[in-house]
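Hi C.,

You asked whether I'd gotten around to modeling the 116-residue construct. I have! Everything is below, sequence then structure, no commentary in between.
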Amino acid sequence: MKNHIKINGKILQTNKRFSQLKQSQKEWIATELFNLYHDKMKERRTTRKLSAHHRDEVISSLYKKNEDREIWIPYHEVERYAFSKITKIIKSFKKKYPELSTEIEAEHVGKKDKSL
């Protein structure tokens, strides 16, 4: 019982793996991760991987939202899942926001040309 806590009279397992979650919980986490990561990409004006600091902000905010929804899963499981989906998230950003992606890419090319 060391990996369980009692909340509101319910015993909850706190060391679950991502695969042990219900399908609806998995889908919610996936959707929320994509939305948070896309929002951060828009904010940072990039179509590439976020830096470690910004990526950790996204993962922390996702973990906080999981806690608010009472999805009990360890932080390292959320982090591992997020790392496994980063490439897919970036590709989906380019498909979901094609105009914005080309605009951002053009900005980055313009910055490179000015520095030369």
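If it helps when you're writing up: Residues 23-44 form the longest helix (22 residues).

Thanks,
B.
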